[in-house]
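Dear colleague,

Thank you for sharing your sequence with our group. We've completed the structure prediction you requested, and as agreed, I am returning the results in plain text so they can be pasted directly into your records. Please verify that the sequence below matches your submission; if there's any discrepancy, let me know and we will rerun it promptly.
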Amino acid sequence: MQSTQQQEAIEEFWQHISHCDHVVQIYENEDSFLDTLEAFVAEGFRNNEAIIVIATPEHRAALAGRLERNGISVAAAASSGQLIVRDARTCLARFMFDGWPAESRFNAMIEELLAKAREKHPTVRAFGEMVALLWDEKLYRATMRLEHMWTQLCQRESFPLFCAYPKASFDTGDPADCREVHHAHTRACPPL
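Please find the predicted structure tokens below.
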């Protein structure tokens, strides 16, 4: 559980991101990740933005539980089009071929989600953990390619994106890999 000071720091961080920031968090534990994700999504609700979440079933369920506990009806938000939730592995299957992301298919999939989100909300923010899944499968070059594709799309479509990786994914690898992931983003979340 985070302290009030940590909670305020992460809330302030999300209040000051730009519309094309590509943010990364390399997290120590699930709680710190979920605290950060919850704050990112909650800030979107406060700003009346649409929120796209592309996550694993475990993280989608944990986020939904946290939002519900804080008075946000996930069903109502989904029904209104403000919250669009997709499964990360299912999304990956739509554009990955032989271990490599097909850019045109990726762009089409995300642009379709953005168009749906913008039907009722002019501004959008997105969270995705497809890159973390690729990294854990040791598809490092494909991960970095997908990160760069995301950055291009964020800039072209003007929306902030939040990505997250478990720190354990980097513990046995080359420290340069972790630096490369950081460099593929415009900002990093403050440590919790």
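Summary note from our side: The chain has one domain: 19-188.

Kind regards,
the structure core
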